[in-house]
Amino acid sequence: MEEFTILSGTASAQLAASVAEILHARMAACSISRFPDGEIAIQLNESVRGCAVFIIQSTCPPVDENLVELLALVDACRRADARRVSAIVPYFGYARADKRRGCREPVTASMVATLMEAVGVDRLITVDLHAPQIEGFFHIPVDNLSAVTLLCDALQARHQLSPDTVVVSPDEGRVKTAAEYGRKLGCPVVVLHKERHGGSTTRVTHVVGDVRDRSCLIIDDMISTGGTIAESIHSLLQAGARPEITIAATHCLRLPGARKNLSHEAVRGILATDTVHVIQNAWPELQVISTAPLLASAISRCG
Ligand code: R5P
After folding, report:
1. Cα of 256 to ligand 1 centre, how many Å?
2. Which residues of the chain have pLDDT under 50?
3. What is the dihedral of CA 6, 286, 174, 54, to 10 degrees?
4. Cα separation of 61 and 127, whole Å?
């Protein structure tokens, strides 16, 4: 493999260290701080001239701060004559803003793609984009990795999913992902029809499929406030599901109230990955599966 180095933003420091460890790679020394007015201050403490640099930074909350930090890191590498700059954005913020819902709205995911390309990102590596078609906003190679296999392996190894489990897609947007879980776990798929009434309020109007006396595995790409999953649990129990519910999502943003929303006596387990850093003690029920092997293997294939 050509000479490469890994650079970590502050949102993904632990994940970046794990990736570097797997690859026996060096992490480039870099100081990141804030000026008194909140502006980002970055200093690369070693040369990256001629290097392929992989910058690992999720654009999770605080989204705008982490995004600008990523852009500034890319700019620093470009100006320091890095040969190639790949942005590894395990959680891609603003992915839900992939279309206009009415007039006079931005398509912020597209704007983020434009910004990344403008500062000189050569390649984007990300995990379970909320909408895979976001790839089309870019004119550079995009690797949208899937964490579904990692999560299914963990479900099979650590959770005794009963043989009558159904995989539940909490809305129409997740049907393909649910089908992938269903294929890997050998379970049928049930789909909920969800209406969104605001940033944190959703309502399930229909349960499509039979959940009576079945255990449920609710899957999603992300848990933000936890409102979607909480409403899904409620509707599944009302439809006669057994109070044996497992939850698996790739990204867990840990917004205030999310843990409380998912604290239901029917919940047997919650799995998410480390695309967004989770302080384990802050949410002991959450089992965190590392995406470091997935990202390390993507880097080694970029050769
Ligand atoms: C929506 O389309 C997404 O796939 C998630 O279901 C949603 O963003 C989760 O957000 P929250 O946890 O706030 O309901």
Report:
1. 14
2. none
3. 0
4. 16
Closest Cα to atom 4 of ligand 1? 221
Strands 189-196 and 202-208: antiparallel
How far apart, in whole angstroms, are the C-alpha atoms of residue 266 and residue 272?
Answer: 18
CA of 225 to the centre of ligand 1 (A): 8
Q: Which residue among 224, 251, 263 is best mutated to probe the pocket of ligand 1, counting the most ligand atoms within 8 A of its Cβ?
A: 224
How far is ligand 1, taken at its centre, from the CA of residue 228, in Å? 6
Output the residue whose Cα is nearest ligand 1's atom 5: 222
Task: Summarize pLDDT for 4-60 with one digit per residue, the tens.
Answer: 999 999 999 999 999 999 999 989 999 999 999 999 999 999 999 999 999 999 999
| Residues 93 and 63: beta-carbon distance below 8 Å | yes
Residue 116 and residue 78 in contact, taking contact as beta carbons nearer than 8 Å: no
CA of 223 to the centre of ligand 1 (A): 6
Q: What is the pTM of this model?
A: 0.95
